[in-house]
Design brief:
The chain is of the alpha/beta class and 406 residues long. It folds into 2 domains: 177 residues, FAD/NAD(P)-binding domain (3-Layer(bba) Sandwich), CATH 3.50.50; 154 residues, D-Amino Acid Oxidase, Chain A, domain 2. 29% of the residues lie in helices and 26% in strands. The chain contains 10 helices and 18 strands. Strands 1, 2, 8, 9, 10, 11, 17 and 18 form an 8-stranded mixed β-sheet that branches. An 8-stranded mixed β-sheet has the order 5-6-4-13-14-15-12-16. A hairpin with a 2-residue loop joins strand 10 and strand 11. It is globular and about 65 Å long. The termini are far apart. Bound molecules: flavin-adenine dinucleotide. The site of flavin-adenine dinucleotide (FAD) has 44 residues, from helix 2, strand 2, helix 8, strand 12 and strand 16.
């Protein structure tokens, strides 16, 4: 690998102010939330807003998992897209999930405004580039299906793509789908802001690794690295680590390493978030408010596609592949300076949909995970839905298609 810090601290971690985090573990709590990513921080926020005084625990710090290491896209819909998901679960359930993500994004926007969170949350739109005529035909069909279902997307030709960037697209770019409402943001500042807001509304926070959970009388007993807690209810938002806490999820939620790099700040080049199938496993990038371009993907270059690992270190094959993306697609973007390289833990499921349900065998515990690299548009509502499930004992209807037995 040439250039760049590869200690696996993400651009987001290096550019976010720290957040207050209490580190004291009480012996009891009405609601314990495990994992302070987008899902767990949101669950703690909504539980605190409901007056439940939750305890939010993380083994490291807020955003230490996928949320503080990702691409900073809050798109809408599922990993496989509308057509792929509707083939699996039908059009009506797919629409329920797509609407859930739009609702979740609106909730995220409301928290950002209400709690004055400085996280560059902006509907800059997202381009999904077509890199050949066949792909453009598929994109045209996707746009037709999405518009028919009521979603705001349009098909652009190469000239339309060129208007949305300050560098000339190379000849491989023949068009794109444009989703104008898609959001880019600083994911870690968002999570830190939600954690701070949760604390203002009464949540406690603590560092501890939860090792196990089990029914104990009318409560749930958690064994942690910092002691035992008796919880009235438990919400597990551990995503890639889910099966360590709930062994029944082994083979259902599988950790997958995602890798990224960032380039030294540049004058404006890209005005939107961008995705492309440059490799079979997909690539994505955005230019942040300080001019840094963050770019990820290229798992196809890893011998095993980086499946089934929780290692948070970047590797040479994937990083070398990432380095080729921009110079190949945009001839003027050759020789950029790489500033940082990192890796993060995604979590995949066999049908590319997240799972939200009760923990098997522990009636007062609920979990969500397996977001397949698309957790940001789900996270805020899923966190809220987990709190509702813990309060009422049933899954809310909008997350019901995501239950374990589907
Ligand atoms: C490189 C990369 C790029 C991505 N890009 C995007 C993107 O642009 N848009 C998008 O929508 N999604 C993206 N994703 C996926 C997205 O980041 C995730 O889907 C989302 O952040 C998951 O949030 P979460 O809260 O479920 O999990 P996480 O953010 O992973 O949080 C889980 C937390 O649980 C904690 N934890 C785990 N086990 C324990 C334990 N036993 N005890 C205590 N704490 C524990 C961890 O420390 C961690 O902080 C990307 C992921 C990666 C890795």
């Amino acid at each position: 690998m040439t250039g760049g810090v590869d200690d696996s601290t993400s651009y987001w971690q290096a550019s976010a102010p720290g957040v207050h985090w209490q580190h004291a573990l009480p012996a009891q709590s009405a609601v314990v939330v495990i994992g302070a990513g987008i899902v767990g921080s949101s669950a703690a926020y909504w539980a605190a807003r409901a007056g439940l005084q939750p305890l939010l625990i993380d083994q490291r710090a807020p955003g230490a998992g996928a949320t503080g290491r990702n691409g900073g896209f809050m798109t809408f819909g599922t990993a496989e897209g509308f057509s792929g998901t509707s083939r699996r679960i039908g059009v009506a359930a797919t629409k329920t999930l797509f609407d859930l993500t739009l609702h979740s994004r609106a909730l995220a926007r409301r928290i950002v405004v209400d709690e004055r969170i400085d996280c560059d949350f902006a509907a800059r739109g997202r381009l999904s580039l077509s890199l050949n005529a066949t792909e453009h035909e598929h994109h045209a069909a996707d746009v037709a299906v999405l518009r028919e279902a009521g979603y705001d997307v349009e098909l652009l030709d190469a000239a339309g793509v060129a208007q949305l960037m300050h560098t000339p697209p190379g000849p491989r770019i023949v068009g794109a789908i444009f989703a104008p409402g898609d959001v880019t943001l600083h994911s870690l500042r968002l999570v830190n802001g939600i954690v701070a807001a949760a604390e203002r509304h009464g949540a406690l926070t603590a560092t501890a690794t939860v090792r196990s959970l089990a029914e104990h009388g009318g409560s749930v007993r958690l064994e942690t690295s910092a002691g035992t807690i008796e919880a009235g209810a438990v919400i597990i938002a551990a995503n890639a680590w889910s099966s360590q806490l709930v062994p029944a999820l082994r083979g259902i939620i599988t950790p997958v390493r995602g890798q990224m790099l960032s380039y030294a700040p540049l004058p404006p080049v890209f005005t939107t978030g961008i995705g492309a199938e440059f490799s079979e496993t997909g690539e994505y990038w955005q230019q942040t408010s300080d001019g840094t371009i963050v770019l990820g993907g290229c798992r196809a270059a890893a011998p095993d596609r980086d499946v089934d690992t929780l290692a948070l270190v970047p590797t040479a094959p994937v990083q070398t592949a990432l380095e080729r993306v921009l110079p190949t697609l945009f001839p003027q973007l050759d020789g950029l300076t790489i500033e940082r390289r990192w890796a993060g833990p995604m979590a995949f499921t066999p049908d590319y949909l997240p799972v939200v349900d009760q923990v098997p065998g522990v009636a007062r515990a609920w979990f969500a995970g397996g977001f397949c690299g698309h957790g940001m548009p789900f996270g805020v509502r899923v966190g809220q839905a987990l709190v509702e499930a813990a309060q009422r004992g049933v899954l809310p209807t909008d997350v019901a298609p995501l239950h374990l037995g589907r």
